[in-house]
Every structure is written in C-alpha cells, then in structure tokens.
Amino acid sequence: MDYSLQRRAVLADVYAGRTGLFEVCDASPYLTRAAKYHGEATDVACPVCRKVELTLVSYVYGEHLGPTAGQAKTQAELTRMDAAQEEFSVYTVQVCRGCGWNHLDCSYVLGAEPDPGRQPRRTRRRAATE
C-alpha cells in the first residue's frame, strides 16, 4: 500500500501554514538511530528542510517472527527473511535525519504463504516449580 496521497495532504497543510513543523518533524531518537544503522539512503531531498536526503527505514511485523517483530531491518535482511519466514508485513518509513521529518511511505507483505495443511507449531511450556 502506498501512502503518497496522505503524505501530499500533510505537506500541503505544512506549506499552507495549517500544520506546524513541530507536528511533522517529530522523529523519535529510536527512529533516527534506526535510520542511521538500518536505513537505506535515497537521493530524494527532504520535503520540509530540503537540505538532507531522506532515508528509508523498514520495520517487520508478523505473528511468527517472535522477538524479531517490530525491529528495523536492512534490505539484505529482508531478502533473507523473505526466503526463510512465513508471511510478515513490512512498513517502510521516510526519515530526514536533519529536521526529523518522518512519514509512512509504504507497506507490503513478504515471506511464504502459510501452508493450510500444516499443523501450527507447538511451544513447550515449562512446568511450574513449587
């Protein structure tokens, strides 16, 4: 799913003065750090400050990912996960490491479709100690 129409609407509000910069340039320190270490650099200038090029950060979510769910992943990691995991969702965020602009860019699904005949994996439970 592409969020470019929503992005354009937000930017139109910023340019018209209906929305303040503090409302759209609010990237958390965690998002900025994820952009630095896991992001993919682009050649697209930030639509707000126009000084820094945007970075794309991809986050993964899925019920079968366990502790990996919610983590930022590089494109190489996504490629490996696509081949080895059941279906999971990827959400890609645009981030400006200069001014803090951030907006959801797109979302998509990767991984293998679950096999309907396959039994769900059981997890072991530890016996309660008394």
Automatic annotation (TrEMBL):
InterPro entries: DUF5318. It comes from the Bacteria. Pfam families: DUF5318 (PF17249). This is DUF5318 domain-containing protein. It comes from Geodermatophilus africanus.
